[in-house]
Specification:
With about 80 residues, the protein is mostly helical. The protein contains four helices and no strands.
Length: about 80
């Protein structure tokens, strides 16, 4: 009975960690795509807040966000043993 409870608790923890990693990965990927495609979006609100940044800094940050987002998605999708 105690072993069943611990096994269920471990499975729930793995499920929550998987959901968290996938959610954070998707959010970071979206931020990276927005940073990289800010020139093509033509959004006044985004240009007011982010458009003043140096384009090189935006591209570097967007690229890092893409790499980190892919890593978090991989970490969330891979099987936990």
């Amino acid at each position: 009975m105690i072993n069943d409870y611990k096994e269920r608790q471990r499975k729930n923890a793995v499920l929550m960690r998987t959901i968290y990693n996938i959610t954070v990965g998707i959010l970071v990927l979206v931020i990276g795509v927005v940073m990289l495609s800010l020139d093509w979006l033509h959004s006044e609100t985004l240009n007011d807040y982010i458009g003043y940044l140096d384009p090189l800094l935006r591209y570097m940050f967007g690229g890092l966000c893409l790499i980190y987002g892919i890593f978090r998605l991989y970490r969330g999708i891979k099987k936990e043993f």
